[in-house]
Structure formats: structure tokens, C-alpha cells
Amino acid sequence: MTNLAHDISKPRRTFWTMERRDAAAGYIFIAPQLMGIVLFVLIPLGLVFWYSLHEWNVLANTFNFRGLGNYEQLLRDPALPQVLAASAIFSAGLVVFNMSLALLLAVLLDQKLRGIVVFRTLFFSPVVVSLVAWTIVWGFLLQNNGGINGLLQMVGIEGPNWLRHPTTAMISVIVVQVFKNVGLNMILFLAALQGVPKELYEAARVDGAPRFKQFRRITLPMISPTILLTSIITIVGSLQVFAQIAVLTQGGPGMSTTVLVYYLYQQAFQFHFFGYGATLSILLFLIVAVLTFAQWQMRRRLVFYEN
Amino acid sequence: MHSKTFLKSAVASAAIAASLAWSGVAWAQDAVNLRMTIWSGNEAHLAMFNEIAEGFKETHPNVNVTFEPLPFENYTTTLTTQIAGGNPPDLAWILETTAADFVNSGALAPLTEAFEATEGYDMADVSEQATALWTRDGQLYAYPFSTSPFAIFANNDLITAAGARTPADLIEAGEWTWENAFATAAAVAQAGEADGLVVRDFNYQVWQNVASIWNGWGASPWSEDGKTCSFSEPEMVEAMTAIHDAVFKAGAMPGPGENVDFFAGDAAMTITQISRASLLPKEDPFDWDLVPLPTGPAGEYAVVGQAGVGAFANAPNVDVAVEFLAYMTNPENSAKLAQFFPPARSSLLNAETLATTNPLLSAEQLEAVVIAGISNGKVLPGHTNFAQIQQTVRAELDALWQPDADVAAVLANVCNRIAPLLAQ
Amino acid sequence: MKTDLSPRMKVALYGLMCILLIPFVFPTWWMVTSSVKPISDIFAFPPDIIPRQFDFSTYSQVFELQPFARQYWNSAYIAALVTLGTMIVSSMAGYAFARIKFPFSNAIFMVVLLGLLIPSEVTIVPLFQMFLSWGMINTHWPLILVPVFGAPSVFATFVMRQFFISLPVELEEAARVDGLGRFKIFWTIALPLAKPALGAVAIFTFLHSWNLYLEPIVFLSSTQMFTLPQALTQFTDAYGGAMWNIQLAAATMTALPVLVVFIIAQKQFVEGLAHTGLKG
After folding, report:
1. Residue C1: which pLDDT band, with cuts at 50, 70 and 90?
2. CATH number of the domain at A78-302, please?
3. Which range is the signal sequence, renumbered to this chain (chain B) (predicted)?
4. In this structure, which CATH number among 3.40.190.10, 3.40.50.1980, 3.40.1080.20, 2.120.10.30 belongs to the domain B28-148+305-378?
């Protein structure tokens, strides 16, 4: 309050009220990030939209205005329904499997056990292993005569030809992707679990609530903000995966594992249809934006806050 | 008429621009930096290319050439991004599968005149068969610096252990046919120790590599002019039926989703390019042989894979780039390149030159496989917009690689799907 | 949940974790062991769990075939700069979005969040054109500027904002009453409290930069400038075939130091994150 009085006594500075100074500080604080977003996200995105209105063949060096022609082509593209369905299945499968495995691992690694640090590190290790090595090894393991079917044979099961049937190929690319990156979500969940106040469990124990009930009634609500955050990151990330699909299945068999970003990559960089590739980029962007917005809205209903 | 006048004026203005550029170079001796993208990071390759670039400097002291290795898997993607971004390299290696795209697009500078004008170049020495893929309307747009024939490597230890006839025996008896080759492969597979015949790098995805088999039936994926699909023609149906039977009935070839490496001693035979001889095990080796592809119902044949190098028409120093290309592929430097890349020049196609390239191979093997192969070989199939056609065919052919597939019906579907793409 | 476990329970937990570990550890094991195998043994089937012969010369060949030490340095310094830069940019932006009231702050935050949503394949061509016009092709600038200021830093800003929201506001109020400026408050009060969140941001950012693949191959062209993931693709024989054992030796050397750092830092990292409680 003294400060305020001080300010008033100096009329020269009345323009710089607390609010104004704060606002100025706020803009200065966000300026680097905001300029970066304008320069490296918004302008490129605008250019991508501009490309999407053109027929652009890079090799032939043609760049012709097409209006909404690419968007009409998008609506008529016979492959698109398949591609969207594959993307939806891939993302849904990936998010569900990733989140549940991450949570399971986090709960296991939260126990008081000797050597738990070693386990944490090993579960995390695929995150830093080279993607090339990772994909090669899994390519091997998933062969018809590969390691996984070898293991299954030992227990008397005839394993499927994993990468050669639509269903198992989809399962395979999801699982390979999840094992590679689940470590990151696992660490986020582990941190969230350790952040749950111990007193809550003690109270529950006094009431004689069984472990499972404690988990559902206390743990899950308390870590729900983390679940929301990781699910947004994971779903956004899932729509951007294609390197491993390219190596493991090339989008096959048929079109069964051709997800949207892989299709986009093919059209733009392999088939050289940059204009149509840009149109698919815009579609991908809209899908991600809508999904994220929906999840963000749902947080009010699903996420528990302590205050 | 209209397009002709346009062409004329384009040529005229190009000539003016070229002479301006040339006089500029000669007058000011401005430093010119040329950039060539390649997909090999091998240091021996780079040393050789740098040596050639140094040699060029003797006559062109103002020209620097740098070689830019890009990862093979992303080669075309990265190249395309550079072009799209407005920064094309001056020169680039080009994969055979994308040859038609680059050659037909107008992105590359024509080479024939410049090559013919180069002293001692001897264009007639370059095999016409080898340049076909890289030529449009009689004009060469990229030089095939590597022309590598497909052949069969055989593991005689495995074959004799299974009591089957080796390719050498069959060749001697004049019975080296696909029927007998499949029989030998099936015999080894049945013995249970190893698999039969592997088409390397095919993986039931890169189907164009199977041309090394179906050409024996006289089959081809599309007509000469590339306009009509011929997957459903009787030759192709027969060839594919033979392959399908070999895979699913006789077990002569490992099935889809099975990874088998010949060079690790896990298969009786493999079809691949001769350069893969470098993979033969040095320790604990097996008794191996290299033989030409067997004859099919259509008789003897050979298949080659190629890589080309071209200069970009839109790059600022295109004339210097073309000049460098002429220097790099002249007879003298072609001999250097032949250390690593089988040459397209007939004067270099002798067992002597090639022996230095392929120290593992005997003179007879070189004669029978390499020289005969390069001289008569048909290049792997290519087409404008090949990547899209490749993917479309790949997706349809997935239905063929099932035990109970209806070969004729699947191939008819392939044609239905790619007909519109071919017609474009 | 964290009660002391009975011995039987402990054995069961160890067993369960060991089984779950197989798919995580086997590929890494294969990478490390294959790096000392002769090339013909790598793809033998079934693979040897323990190599039949050890050939460590692959590790020295890595340095002979590529300027690998230089490439290592490139990756390391780029990742360090990106990490440091991202921590500064994101903590400032995150603090402002969480704490300071200024017009349109919510709308601007939404715009910034867009950065989270765009795959890098989408914007790579326009970005290439941009950096070309600035003469920054074949320099490390695109690999530093884009992650620090562009899309990749948005996740960090998001984490920092969530952290500062959860921080009790009373700590700063006192300082404000004492007349401290915003920057001073941020620097002397808020930022020191944000160490755990900064730690999380640092690890994620470092890993992202360390593993970056598409951008280096598009922006860099000379081997001296290459980063590690890009260098890994360069180990090929005279015929273009991959020299797998050498490539895997290089891959092993790329992964190990990061794992060591993780082992050392993971306790603080996890506990640090635990106190922040990332909230949506």
C-alpha cells in the first residue's frame, strides 16, 4: 500500500500503473516464444496452406494455382477412408496400450524394492536407443521365422505371420512404437504417483479400504492431471509416427497400416505431389487441433483438482 | 507449332545465357562451387571422387566440386526437399527407379551435345542398352555410371549336402533352367538345414526386383511405351504362377515375412547384384559360385540395375556442371569409376579391367556374368511416377503372397488399379 | 500404496518386472552385442545371444570412417545450447502465461499451443526455404533456432506454465509489496523454486535434440557438420551396403552416455517432477 501511495505522489509515473507495468512485463516475457511461433510455425503453416492451393510438381518445376482443386481431390480420394480408418485404429490402440502399460510400469517401479533404480533405467533405455537399431531388431523378431514365433513354438503355439496380416501388422506397429517410447510416460506417471500425499492412503487404510479401491478412489483422481497431459502428448505424437511403419510394413499389407502422416509423406516426398501433400498436411493439422481441443475441454469433467 | 517456337526461343535464350555465363567465367575467373549429392558415405568412394575433382581443377582452377553424402533410405526425399526449397544441387546421383521421373520432368540438363563436343569422350563407346533408361527423344539426361548385372550366388556345400545338382553341373549339362534351379532350391529346403532361393532385397515388397525372374518368361509389367499394363498378360501370369508354386507348393523360396540371409549360409542360392560379393564370409567360408541367371521359357536373358548421375538445368552453373560430368565420365575417369561401379563403356568391359574391381571373382565368372550381363541386360522396370505405381502395385500384390491366391485374378486387379496411373 | 512388502510379494514383483523387461532390453542387448560381431554373424538365425567372437576394432573404425568425434561434439553442443535456450525461453513464457495478467494472454497461449500440434514433416519445406534465404543451410542454426523458439519448445512452455500455476502465489505477493519488479521476482523467487520442472524440461529437450533425425539430413550437407543420428546412416561399404557392425558400434556409443546421465539424474528428475504435480 505504501508503494501505491508512493506512486501517486509522483504524477510523472501515473501512466505506468501496476497493471500496465505488468502487461508490459508479460509481453516481454513471452516475446521470444511468440516470435518463434510466428516465424517457425505460423508463417510456415500459412505457406503450407498457400501450397495446398497449387499444383506443385517439384521435379517438373511447375507451380500452378488450382484453387480448391486439391481439396476436391481430397474428398474424392478413394484411399482416404482407408487411411483415416488406419490412423484412427493406430492412434486409439497406441494411446490405450501406451497409457495402460506406462501406468502399470509406474506402479511397479513405485514400490520400495532393492535395485529399483536399475529397473527404472532399463525400462527407460529404449527411449535413447537408435531408432534404426530398434526397428531392425523388431523387424527380425516379428518375422514369420523370427524370435517371437520361436518363443511361441516352445509353448506349442503356432504364431501368426505378424507383419503379413492386416490385424497382426497393425498390432505389431503399435506395440513396437509403444515399447520404444513408453518410458517417457512411465516417468511422468511415476512422478505423479510419488506426488500423491501419503496421508490420503493412511486415512483410507484406517477405513479398511482394499488396495484396488485405494487405487481407484485416491490414486487415479490424484494423478488425473498427469493422465490428461500424457494422453494429449501421446495422441498428438501418435499422429506423427511413420518412420517405423515405413520400415516394418511400408504401409501394408494392402493399405492396412498406411496412417495419415505416412500417406502425406508418400504423396509429397515420394510421389512428388507437394500441393496435394500440403493439402493432407492441413487435414492432419485440423484433426490434431480438434482432438486436442476436445481433450482440453473434457478436462473440466474428468480431471480432479485438489483446490 | 507453338510449342516448337517456344522451344526454339528457350534454346536460344539458354544459349545466350550459357555463353554469357561462360564468358563470365572466362573473364572474371569467378570461383564456381559445384555440389554433387551422392548416397554413399564410403570414404574410398569419396577419395576417388575428390581425386577426379582435383584433376578437373587442372584445367578449371576456379571450380571446386564437393560431394554431399545423403542417407540412402532418404535420398530422394532429401534431394526433393532441396529442390523444392530452391536449393538444388548442381549434380546428383539418381536411382534407377526414379530415372524416368527425373529424365522426363525437364529438371535435368541435356548432355549429349556437350559430351560429343568433349575431346576424346567417344560417345559410341557407351553401350546404348545402358543409356536407354536415361535418354529421352535421343537426348541423354543422365549418365549411367553404375550398371550392375543380377546373377545367382550359390552355396555348393548346401547343395551337394542335399544331394541336388549344383548350378555349375546344370550349366555344363546345358540344363540351367528355372525349372531345374527351383528343383535344386526345393531339394535344399527339403533337406531342412537351410532355405532354397532368396531374391535379395525383395521381401515381398520391392517387387521390381523379381524382374530378375520374370524376364525369363519374357514378361514385363507394362508395354514398351509405358502406356498399357501387361501384368495380366499370359507371360506374366505364367511367370508369377511359377514363382507362387515355388514359394507355396515346392517350398523352394522362403515365404513372405521370412528373413533369410544367403551370405550367412542360410540359403542355397540368392539372386542379387555382383557387387554383393563383398558380403561373402571371410572367416569360415563356404564353397560358393557365381552363375548367370537360368534360362526361362523365353530363353536366355540378363537383367541389370543402374544408377545415373545428372546435372540440374536450373542450377546457376549448369554449364560448368555438365562440363565436369563430361570430364568425370570420360574414358580415363570411367576406368577409375570402374573400381567400384561396373561401367557402361564397352572398352572397359573386359575381364582384365573388371578383375581389379571384383577381386573375388574368377575370369570365367566375370566373362559369363558381368560382361555378358552388361552387354545384353535389360534394365529393371521404371516409369514416370514410379514411386506411386510401385506402392499401388505393392499393395495389390500383397494378395498374391497367400497360399491360396488366385494368381490371374490378382494380376488383373493390379492392372485395374494402375491403368489410370500409366495412362497419365 | 508404499507399504513394506512381504518377501513373497517381493519375489513376485521381481519376477513380473523381469518378464516385462524382455521386450525392452533385448533390442538394446542385440545392438551392443552385434557391434562386436563379424558382419556375417549379425543376421544369422537364430541370433547368438552371446557373440561367438568379439571384435572391438569396429569401435576404432567408427572414428576412422567418419569424423565421429567432431559429429559427437556437434550433437553435444547443439543439444546443450538447445536445452539451455529452451529452459530460458520456456520458463519466461510459462511464467508469464501462469502469473502475469495481460490483455489477450489466453488467446496468445492458444496460438502458442498450435506449435504442439504440427508434425515437422508438415513445415519442413517452408522452413528450408526460409533458412535458405537467410543463408543458414549447412549451418547448425536451424537445428538450434527452431527447437529453442519454435514448435519443440512449446511442450516445455506448457510444462513450465503448469508448474507455475501450482506454485503458491503468496511467495511472490510479499515481494511485490516490497516493490520488486517482475523480472526480479521471476529471477530470484520463482525460478529457483522451479528447479524440478526445469529438470524435467531439460531432460525432454535434450533427448529431443539428441535424437533429431529429419531436420539434420535436410539442413546439413557436409560430414563435418553432421549430427549423430545422421552420421549413423553413413557407415556403408564400397557398394553401398550397410556396415552393420560398425553402425551399431556407433549407435551404442550414441546411446550409452545418455543412459549414464539418466542413471545419475533419474532420482532427482522423478522426485522433482513429483513435487510439481503437472496439472492440466
Report:
1. very low
2. 1.10.3720.10
3. 1-28
4. 3.40.190.10
